[in-house]
Amino acid sequence: xxxxxFLAFDLGxxxxxxxxxxxxxxxxxxxxxxxxxxxxxxxxxxxxWNIFSLFGELKTGLKKCIHxxxxxxxxxxxxxxxxxxxxxxxxxxxxxxxxxxRDPRTDQAMEEVFKVVPKKELYRMTGIQFMQFNTLFQLHAxxxxxxxxxxxxxxxxxxxxxxxxLFSGIKKNEFSIASTSQxxxxxxxxxxxxxxxxxxxxxxxxxxxxxxxxILGPLKAEIQKETGSSAIPVVAVAAHDTASAxxxxxxxxxxxxxxxxxxxxxxxxxxxRPLISEEIQxxxxxxxxxxxxxxxxxxxxxxLWLLQECRRTWSSERNYTWPEMVEMxxxxxxxxxLIDPDAREFxxxxxxxxxxxxxxxxxxxxxxxxxxxxxxxxxxSLALKYRKTLDELRAVSPFEIxxxxxxxxxxxxxxxxxxxxxxxxxxxxxxPAEATAIGNIMLQAKALGAVSSLEEIRKMIFDSxxxxxxxxxxxxxWNVQYQRxxxxxxx
Length: 491
What we know:
Layout: E1 4-11, E2 15-24, E3 27-37, E4 41-43, E5 46-48, H1 51-67, E6 76-79, E7 85-88, H2 109-114, H3 119-126, H4 135-144, H5 148-152, E8 155-158, H6 159-168, E9 173-174, H7 175-178, H8 193-199, E10 209-210, E11 214-218, H9 221-227, E12 233-236, H10 241-247, E13 256-261, E14 264-271, H11 278-283, E15 286-289, E16 295-302, H12 305-314, H13 322-330, H14 352-362, H15 371-396, E17 403-407, H16 414-424, E18 428-430, H17 435-447, H18 454-464, E19 468-470, H19 475-488
Parallel strand pairs: 1-6, 6-12, 9-10, 13-17, 17-18
Antiparallel strand pairs: 1-2, 2-3, 4-5, 7-8, 11-12, 13-14, 14-16, 15-16, 18-19
């Protein structure tokens, strides 16, 4: 019996983990090696990621795996959130802390770019959902502000590419993460020259595009020495966390949608080609790169960020546990008020409960009277947003949607899963919770020959992890509330 070990570094906007995946007897098991916080750093009113601290935590994770757990992994891979970039100078050194996507410098960037490249034309060229923090708009802001960092830069890497570069010394742009940028031709490993010309940025700053599962190179000698590791390969996995997560959906056939549930809720379908039309543009769906030539046709929904930010604001009074928050919501009045989770005022308000109260006041609703009421408002509104997105998906999907797979940390929230089933009137299959880390691990396994295909990956995941099914309840009541929700939705 051969046992194989792979180390996944899975970084989210609020935390990161080192997860060891072990394949034995055609099943995968997981072990958390290291967990650490990740927070935006505010400096002079701007928001950044501390990439140096993050890389230190990743090295700690590798060191712990070898020294504390006694396991030398065969390889490692890194996945993160999308769009954010790291600039390198001509000596290969990082030029300042990378901006975080919630930084306000891009507040007007979309409208500025649309004056140069019309909105309709930009969508036709890229097939990407318009969000103010897409890399295209971030780079425009760098150029508009005459950033000295951009003037110094010789290379641009996306966040997971940069962390792999620090491990290996190899500079590549992985396809799934690059596809979030709004710079790629739909479904192709090709940057759109015209867009770089439009914003006045040299396309040569970008790196060669590589597919998920590409072996970049061995761990650098100094990292081997520091961590005690052998010269294991660094793998460019599906480096966008959602791409790794979708690769781990334990599904067969085509007639399903997914919700990758965490700080964001990414809801969509897996397509064999990009889907682009004027109707789809108006619905603001995105076409991002997936595994084995698939397209992640989806929409970004402001997910559990709303609850995370409320919890952070309330922490000065009390540090609620997640189960406590669910229990509090159940004691609150149902459907007292509803919010649009994607309203711009929820992107980075500083005080999320106050922003929710202001939205309710603006839309003529009762303001939630306590913390439980706010929590219930978030859960019910998210579920109704899933219903709205499902209706939009059904209007353009090339196949019927008969069930929903919820994966990621939000799949552990049984109340939200039940609400999603109620709102959509479809069965919801919840799990695995560690979908992103699992996808990361399985792409490493594929790169090193332990599995051979996406189909084989999904079968192993189905055999290895439990899935819980939630069936719709109270459909009539949720249908009534959905009509009300559509009236207060901003997009």
